[in-house]
């Protein structure tokens, strides 16, 4: 009887155990020549107190807006900006705590691509 | 009429016909063919620079009667707003110091609200390029 109860209990726990084995990525901020990327959660969870990654969007009366994305590690800070670009504004608006971000800039500092990924592999921010 | 006389008349008539062909004007069809053949086979690829276009515009406006010049002249660009001038000074100051701080970011946020879209783009380009090429290091929480 005791064995049966234990077996049932083990079966009941199986889904929980399986859920712990999903695909997980740790991806702190990375900066390259004309682009930067990383997971917001992994960047926040970095051991240093310098790593930073994100995008901000500011709206003005009449529908105008400006936005920028930025990445920082111990060596440098990089950024790209846009003014009145609804596509970029929409991409930024889709970001969440668990997003992975990749942005590119041109010689004038303008954003050329803002890529936001939202899926389960990216680690959440820790307190 | 001798055979020699007939031959002379025939030669005279033939010569006159050939002479007429040589001096007659070309028919319209021949003129078109000739015109096409004379058209150059290489097309001109020269372009006007913005300076050339501007000089051309000025020449056209100058050639107009005085009472028409005002309506043909392009509107002068809008003067920079006071906020744009302050923002430019702020960014210059930060570049000189080599550091972008929370205080810079807060001041720029306030100034951007009073600027036109083209002014915002210009100042953000200066700031962003300075960060990206390493002349400016950010100590701010975000850029602006």
Describe the structure.
The complex is a heterodimer of chains A (127) and B (144). Chain A is α+β, with helices and mostly antiparallel strands and 127 residues long. Chain A is 24% helix and 35% strand. Chain A is built from 3 helices and 7 strands. In chain A, the strands form 2 sheets. A 4-stranded antiparallel beta sheet of chain A has the order 1-2-6-7. Chain A has a 3-stranded antiparallel beta sheet with strand order 3-4-5. In chain A, a hairpin with a 4-residue loop joins strand 4 (65-72) and strand 5 (77-83). Mean pLDDT of chain A is 89; it is low at 13-18. Chain B has 144 residues and is mainly alpha-helical. Helix content of chain B is 67%, strand content 3%. Chain B contains 7 helices and 2 strands; from the N terminus they run H-H-H-H-H-E-H-H-E. Chain B has helices at 3-23, 28-38, 50-63, 66-72, 82-97, 102-112, 117-132, and strands at residues 99-100, 137-138. Chain B has a two-stranded parallel ribbon with strand order 1-2. In chain B, helix 5 packs antiparallel against helix 6 (102-112) and helix 5 runs parallel beside helix 7 (117-132). The model of chain B has no long low-confidence stretch (mean pLDDT 77). The interface between A and B is medium-sized, with 23 and 22 residues.
Entry keywords:
heterodimer, A: 127 residues, alpha+beta, 4-stranded antiparallel beta sheet, 3-stranded antiparallel beta sheet, 3 helices, B: 144 residues, two-stranded parallel ribbon, 7 helices
Sheet with most strands: strand arrangement of chain A = 1-2-6-7
Largest sheet of chain B: 2 strands, parallel
> Based on the structure, what is the oligomeric state of the protein chains?
heterodimer
What fraction, in percent, of the residue positions of chain B are helical? 55-70%
Structural class of chain A: alpha+beta
| C-alpha termini separation of chain A | 45 Å
Give the biggest sheet of chain A.
Answer: 4 strands, antiparallel
Element string of chain B (H = helix, E = strand)? HHHHHEHHE
- Report the portion of residues of chain A in β strands: 35-45%
Count the strands of chain A? 7
**Annotation field: number of helices of chain B:** 7
Strand content of chain B: under 5%
Task: Report the C-alpha radius of gyration of chain B, rounded.
Answer: 38 Å
What average pLDDT do the residues of chain A reach?
A: 89
Query: Which regions of chain B contain 5 or more consecutive residues with pLDDT less than 50?
Result: none
Strand order of the main beta sheet of chain B, please?
1-2
Q: What is the structural class of chain B?
A: mainly alpha
Please count the helical segments of chain A: 3
The topology string of helices and strands of chain A comes to: HEEHEEEHEE
Shape of chain B: elongated
């Amino acid at each position: 009887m005791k064995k049966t109860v234990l077996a049932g209990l083990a079966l009941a726990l199986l889904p929980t155990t399986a859920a712990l084995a999903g695909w997980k990525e740790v991806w702190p901020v990375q900066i390259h020549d004309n682009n930067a990327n990383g997971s917001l959660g992994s960047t926040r969870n970095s051991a240093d107190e310098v790593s930073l990654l994100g995008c901000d969007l500011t709206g003005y009366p009449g529908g105008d807006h400006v936005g920028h994305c930025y990445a920082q590690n111990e060596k440098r800070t990089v950024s790209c900006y846009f003014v009145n670009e609804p596509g970029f504004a929409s991409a930024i608006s889709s970001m969440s705590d668990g997003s992975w971000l990749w942005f590119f800039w041109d010689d004038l500092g303008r954003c050329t691509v803002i890529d936001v990924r939202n899926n389960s592999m990216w680690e959440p921010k820790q307190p | 009429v001798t055979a020699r006389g007939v031959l002379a008349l025939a030669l005279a008539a033939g010569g006159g016909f050939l002479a007429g062909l040589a001096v007659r004007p070309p028919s319209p069809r021949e003129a078109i063919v000739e015109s096409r053949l004379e058209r150059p086979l290489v097309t001109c690829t020269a372009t006007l620079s913005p300076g050339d276009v501007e000089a051309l515009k000025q020449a056209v406006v100058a050639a107009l009667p005085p009472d028409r010049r005002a309506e043909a002249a392009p509107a002068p660009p809008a003067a920079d707003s006071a906020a744009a001038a302050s923002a430019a000074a702020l960014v210059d100051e930060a570049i000189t110091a080599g550091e972008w701080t929370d205080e810079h970011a807060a001041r720029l946020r306030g100034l951007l609200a009073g600027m036109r879209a083209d002014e915002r783009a210009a100042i953000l380009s200066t700031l962003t390029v300075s960060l990206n090429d390493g002349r400016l290091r950010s100590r701010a929480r975000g850029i602006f």
